[in-house]
Each structure stands twice: as C-alpha cells, then as structure tokens.
Amino acid sequence: MKTAPTLQTERLILRSLTLEDAQDVQHLAGERDVALMVLRIPHPYEDGMAEEWIRFCADTYRKDEAINFAITLRTDRNLIGTIGLELEQENERAELGYWIGKPYWNHGYATEAARAVVAYSFEVLKLNRIYAYHFTRNPASGRVLEKVGMRYEGCRRQHTKKWDNFEDSSGYGMLKSDYDSLP
C-alpha cells in the first residue's frame, strides 16, 4: 500500500493516517468546537465515520488527488490533528486544510505543521501555488496562514453553508516565488 512520506519538525511528526488512528480522529474531530470551525467535519461524528474518512484519504493518495497527514507529537506520538493537501496536478497547485484537537489549541502546532507541509509542497511536489480558506469567524486560522507566509487574497461572502448557516470564507495563497523569497 502506498503511504505518504513522514515529515518531522521540532515538536511534531507528520505521517500517514492509519485505521489505528480512527478512535483519536473521532474523539478529537468530534468535539463540537472543532467541527464548528471546519467545513468538512460533521457533528456528531458517529462511529465508523473516521474509518471511512481514513480509507478515503488512502484512496485519494493512491490516485494522486490528495495527501493527508496525521499530526502527532514527537514526545509521545499522540495524534493531535490532521493536515493535508487537495492536489490539482494539472494546475500545479493544492489547497491546504488542517484541524487541531481542542486540547492542543494555542500551542503553535497548526503553524508548525503547516510550515512543514508548505515546504514539502514547493520543494518536493514542485507545486507553483498553495492556497487555503477559513471561516472568517475563525481568525486564528488566518493567523496560521499568515505566519507561514501566505497572503490574504480576499473574502468569499456567504460562500459555504455550515449547519444551516451561510459562512464567509477568507482566502490566502502563496506562490513558489513567494516561498523562495521567505527569510
């Protein structure tokens, strides 16, 4: 089975998701406050959904459509969230997405993981552009994107619907040339 590479940072290991991660994914992503901030996380997060999602991630990786990583702590290997890229090979770009479990918020883990994935995107995958969107009501996610060097590109008003509410989305992007000019 084709597995994603392992990326390491000072505090984190980013690795392929496995079915053994399902319980942690369900527990962390299933928390209402986490699901509220991420378009594609349902609530309630029912039994079997995590396994289905992990299989979906493996399938999209085999097809070169996406790459998703479990974000784990180097100290104890505990899963604290996930991060991934939805690849658009024909345009040499990808959409970055991530979530961190609530007990791990405000420790800089999302920024650290995003830096590693952005570097992988440009240096290994040789992409030309990375972009991301977040609900405008979640400015912490925007700060993550800014810290990794992405530029604010605008607001898509009422672009998505989450739990019967239309949501504004803020968009950020980075080109390979932007990445190359980072200090």
Could you explain the architecture of this structure?
The chain is α+β, with helices and mostly antiparallel strands and 183 residues long. The protein has one domain (7-180): 3-Layer(aba) Sandwich (Aminopeptidase), CATH 3.40.630.30. 31% of the residues lie in helices and 34% in strands. It contains six helices and eight strands. The chain has helices at 22-29, 32-37, 49-62, 109-123, 139-147, 176-180, and strands spanning 7-8, 12-16, 66-73, 79-88, 93-100, 129-135, 151-162, 165-175. It has an eight-stranded mixed β-sheet with strand order 1-2-3-4-5-6-8-7, sandwiched between helices. A hairpin with a 4-residue loop joins strand 4 and strand 5 (93-100). Helix 1 crosses helix 3. The longest helix has 15 residues, at 109-123. The radius of gyration is 16 Å and the shape is globular. The mean pLDDT is 96.
Question: How would you summarize this macromolecular structure in one to three sentences?
Answer:
With 183 residues, the protein is an alpha+beta fold. It is globular and about 45 Å long. It has 6 helices and 8 strands.
Number of strands: 8
* SS-derived structural category: alpha+beta
Rounded radius of gyration (Å): 16 Å
Uncertain runs are none
The CATH class assignment is: Alpha Beta
The best one-word shape is globular
